[in-house]
Task: structure prediction
Amino acid sequence: MNKVLLFNPRSAIAKYRVPNSILNIAASIEGIYEWVIVDGNRETDPYEKIESYLLTGDYKYLGFTVMPGPQLTQAIAISKKIKDEFPNTIMIWGGYFPSTQHKVVLNSGYIDFVINGPGDHAFPKLIEALENETPYELIKNLIYKIDGNIIKNAKEDLIEQETLPALPYKKLDEFYPFEKYLGKTYLGEHTLAYHSSIGCPFTCSFCAVVPIYEARWKAKPAKMVYEDVKFIKDKWGADSIEFHDNNFFVSEKRTVEFSKMIKPEKMVWWGEGRIDTIDKYKDDSLSIMRDSGCKMIFFGAETGNDSILKKMDKGGTQSSAQIRAFAKRMKKFDIIPEYSFVLGMPAETPEEVMKQIDGDIQFIKEIKEINPDTEIVIYIYSPVPTEGSELYKKVLATGFHFPEKLEDWIGPQWDRFDLRKNPLTPWLTAEMVDKIKNFETVLNGYYPTISDIRLNGIKRKILHTIAGLRYKASMYKHPYEIKLLHRLWKYRQPEIQGF
Ligand code: B12
Ligand code: SF4
Result:
């Protein structure tokens, strides 16, 4: 029987996390096919490692998990090289990038299959079909090419998460000591990355989760989450948790149940949620959450402009008034709201785009006044291909299009696109991008993020004082002195290096 190699291309510059995507795929074949993991975050030369496995002649199937951004660099270069040197291997890509960009991936000529969304059932079924030379044409979530045509199979219903096998943490530990996956963060000395639910019930028109999960959400029950966390705490000493779910807080009941179970473990935890969802939580629930260690929550505030909020199809009831009021409410419970904003959305005229940017800058300053502890994360809007959405239609009408060759994604023009810092969207002028970036620099100077644990009190004070004049006078142009200090002190941006 042929073996499977699973590869997690490098995604983190410094702090790496448990490679949950590839670990789920390993779990799906555990006990059926022999597998190994190569983690690009833990290897200086992952190709050398992969090659050493392939030279044994035992490995035929290669599964790569690929998220846009830096992961693509290793994913593309290594896939291409493997196909050149080991042409009989079968290359399967899964994860957010191939799911939303399957055409460019399959047209590259060196990737054979794409798994669109969850691979927990699709991957073992595909390996089984390939091993037994039986048809794979009916496997759900599979995308492939026949005679030059791309075939996209039907989507599978979301899997009940409690039916999934446990993640093979102990086996991962045999490849890479697990303790090292529990890095130091703002939350604690040994932070665990855990993924407790998949999808999201909402349909925000700018979000990559939507085309893959189509407004569906399934979660592991609170008890299962607690037991996994407890196991890792007892075995490897985790003291804090980052929940990597797109939307951890969909169910108030599950959140409260989990909070009650985790409280005695004295672990600090963080997750991502929606303002309008959590604003409906009872005061009691928020207190229970805080007492159980929930220190900070990441929210997509997106914008203070109500008409853009509508266009973004936030799908719920979020409004600028609620964003303000909620920042105040969180203060009462001592939970830090980490508000993320998306600036630079398209509009009818350049003046209108600039007006939107100015409005959001003003709104962010207002939020900081209401609750100075609010952490602000700023993204520049990068389109995701959400077929059928009004926003995406509008984006295409401006002449925007994604690269036609896979290699172009890692060319100098596109490699920062998905970092949402250099969006290449035709309606954004250099002046607009500069304004957003300069404001962000001044804001990060005046209010340095608390998640940068290396930045001590004195450095914070210096930054705050130096940036103060600019911030108060709204003078954002050429903030060289703040940039210099950021570079000198290696200032950390949570949106790039982990939240
Ligand atoms: C953890 C994480 C990171 C970590 C990576 C940590 C690491 N691995 O070391 C960090 C913080 C570094 C990161 C960075 C970025 N990330 Co990120 N990240 C995530 C996050 C929160 C969790 C990923 C995860 O572990 N999921 C758990 C697993 C179980 O789910 P999954 O990946 O979907 O896997 C399933 C399927 O996709 C499929 N599958 C996945 N891989 C494979 C492989 C094979 C072979 C098969 C068959 C199937 C398969 O099967 C799995 C099981 O069902 C996701 C959001 C999310 N909730 O998924 C965003 C997400 C993937 N990131 C995203 C982005 C854009 C980025 C950035 C590029 C930009 C940014 N500003 O955030 C940066 C890049 C910077 C960099 N240095 O690379 C986006 C992608 C959006 C898009 N346009 O496609 C997401 C979806 C967040 C979002 N909602 O916007 N990220
Ligand atoms: S609520 Fe968040 S995860 Fe859900 S669709 Fe909107 S942006 Fe995406």
Remarks:
- The chain has two domains: 3-152, 171-497.
- The radius of gyration is 23 Å.
